[in-house]
Amino acid sequence: MKLSICIPIYNFDVNDLVKDLQNQIVSNELDAEIILIDDHSKTEFININKNLEKTVSQFVFLDKNIGRSKIRNLFLHYSQSEYLLFLDCDGKIISPDFLKNYIDFIITKNPDVVFGGRKVSDVKPSSEFGLRWKFAVERENLPLKQRLKSPYLDFQTNNFIVKKNILKENPFNETITQYGYEDLIFAKDLFKNKIFIDHIDNPIFNNDVETNEVFLSKADQSAKSLSQLIKSDKDVERVSKIKLAQAYSQLKKTGGIFLYRLIYTLSKSYVQKKLLEGNISLKALDFYKLGQLIYYMNKK
First-to-last CA distance in the chain? Predict the structure, then answer.
């Protein structure tokens, strides 16, 4: 069974990741190809990764940035395999049997989609990186037993395998051009079409813990992306099941938007300050994201 390993790249050095994957392919005598697509990275990162052109099956450089959804769909045009393994470019392989674990699972269960999980360091970083680390530990790095209880809700796109024909029939939503919710919308499309997401304990390590400033900026962008989805997505039910969208909808039904907006406006600077300090409950992050969603929903 051949496997296509698909890695979208944006401003990151993937040499170590590719080398680790190649070593596993050789040592386990696996039939696998590695495909890299660079989403118009900065020149310095293109130069760092360019040498990989000689060692991978295909390396495509895009002349403009197309975003997280569209680039994943683009791999369909280059893959030669029945199964595609998607890995984020900032991932690090931590198991010597990472690829073999996936292939054994595929041979045994013939899944349509399977998510392997993710990890970050168990050691708490300095406060500058505390917010992203806290979010990963409390909401992303979930054990297999917990993920199996809500296989769609706890799906992520950093480390998953999908059948090529399933992705063709259920592509990522390309209206999402910025950061945020492409994984959840993809999972909800699979649920709607009765395609089961399997889960295994085969995590990849998140090798790039972001600063609080970067992560908060992404939280703001995800709220903006969600507002665009709510306004434009024809599949109302799909979007309405997103927790943040549900919170917004509930406020709207009860007439609480104005009051929330008022409280948020008065406290925003303080909440932002505490979030940037990196040592605060994630409820503050939820408060911030809902406030930003309300702002974007009412912005003309």
Answer: 52
Q: How many residues does the chain have?
A: 300
Query: How do residues 150-175 score in pLDDT, each as one tens digit?
Result: 999 899 999 999 999 999 999 998 88
**229, 181 in Cβ contact below 8 A?**
yes
C-alpha to C-alpha distance for 276 and 272, rounded to whole angstroms: 6
> CA neighbours within 13 Å on the CB side: how many for 174?
10
Q: What is the pLDDT of residues 18-45, one digit of tens each?
A: 999 999 999 999 999 999 999 999 999 9
Nearest residue to 135 (alpha-carbon basis) of 226, 221, 212, 239 = 212
Q: CA 179 to CA 216: how far, in whole Å?
A: 12
DSSP structure string for the chain: --EEEEEEESS---HHHHHHHHHHHHHTT--EEEEEEE-S--HHHHHHHGGGGGTSSEEEE-SS---HHHHHHHGGGT--SSEEEEE-TTEE---TTHHHHHHHHHHHH--SEEE--EE--SS---GGGHHHHHHIIIIIS--HHHHTTSTTTT--SSEEEEEHHHHHHS---TT--SSSSHHHHHHHHHHHTT--EEE-S--EEE--PPPHHHHHHHHHHHHHHHHHHHHH-S-HHHHHTSHHHHHHHHHHHHT-HHHHHHHHHHHHHHHHHHHHHT-S-HHHHHHHHHHHHHHHHT--
Q: Which two tokens stand for residue 99?
A: 């690829």
Q: Which tokens belong to 71?
A: 């680039």
* Short-list 215, 233, 237, CA closest to 288: 215
Whole-number Cα distances in Å, 288 to 94, 193, 271, 292? 34, 33, 7, 6
Is this model's pTM higher than 0.85 or not? yes
* Closest C-alpha to 119, from 138, 134, 141: 141
- Contact by Cβ (8 Å): 193, 170: yes
